[in-house]
Amino acid sequence: RDYFRGTGRDPREDIVVLQPEQLPPGSMWPRDLLGEPRSLPFNVLRYEFERGGGLTSNVVDLLYTGMTDGQRGEHHTDYWDDARGQVTLHAVDLSVMGTELSDGRPDIRLDDILEIITSAPKSYADLESPRFRGGRCYELLRKADEGRDRLSPERFRDAQLTGGYWTGEFPGLADETRSSIVSTFSAKVSRLLRSPLRELLCGNTDEAVTPERSLYADAKTGRPKIIVLNLPVKLYHDVGRFAQILYKIVWQRAADRRVAAIDAASPDWRPAFLGADEGQYFITSEDAGFQQTARSAMVATVYLTQNLPNMYAAIGETQTQSFLGNLQTKIFHANGDPVTNEWAERVFGKDLQSFLTRSVTGTTAPTEADSLSPVIPAIRFTRLKKGGHSADPALHGRVGAYIFQAGRQWRSQSADRHYHEFVQHFAKPEERLLSSVPSPARHPHPET
Question: What is the rounded distance in angstroms from the CA atom of residue 399 to the CA atom of residue 313?
């Protein structure tokens, strides 16, 4: 409320909420601010296929990034990952070809992909069974075969590979291997196919909630929308995390695709931001790659987390370090985690400092020596003001922070002054926070 009031924006005009229509018990909804809640469907797989160049491999990568990241540390590709990716790729390909040949427009639905996989032949003998011939997998294989003359040579080759997989390789797998692949996929996606998330993610797409609405100016207001994903992990748990990760990934890909519009100085694009509270829930292996080009896409990423071990547990230490290395501004508040504080100490680095030393007996004069010492020792992060109530009126509500920004020299040694200067650069539109931001001549919206 305060943020929108302070920036002169209208919540009812500028906020779009992606959520189920029936909110679960314990959720909060500001009716006076946003009106009655409503559901805006978004078929994330169809969107990625249509906007991502019609590449089924992009859809598979999207699914498996959401499935694997955020649940284990260092990601190591093994046979099972490859096998699950292969079965999903051929299911998506079959769904695309079958629907294109029968309906004239390719379509991808998560429930259709699952039905293809679960109805596939379980053995060579099963190829002639009524179970297989009455299922979705056989239906789409038959449509692809009947319409092969309408396929381009490239798509015909894809159809041959997909048909060969479902009638040759897949039924030839060992029973234990095949059942493990199918059950793992089914366990991951079946929870998304239940109401209310089924209607939210597996139906049609409402253009009001597409990523582009937050990346370009709205035709009515001239301002981009702010899209809020109202699927809290504390209420929806792993399903809420999975759904938000899927949307976040397609949003990042959409932001990357608009670089050409930025370079062409299109009047419709706007600087954008991606914000995540408890960011460890939503970080994926794609974040590090996105951050490497986020400046070109004019996107600011703001992730909040309690400590580094939370992120290590999500995607592993190596990928976490890669991601954090591409975040130019780092803000450290009071923290009692030694791993985080020691890392913060290394971020600020060491500098030569002078020390006076004297002998134990005191019989010799003090000598001065230079030594490399931490600019901000780890202990200082445990002593920052944490806000809240305090008996001392001077400390009441005060929050301390150390701020690091690559390439920037602060004009004061006071932490309070650091924070004040940092906020002032956001508050004054005529001042630039980053000296390397391109000139207004190239980017026509310096006031944002």
Answer: 28
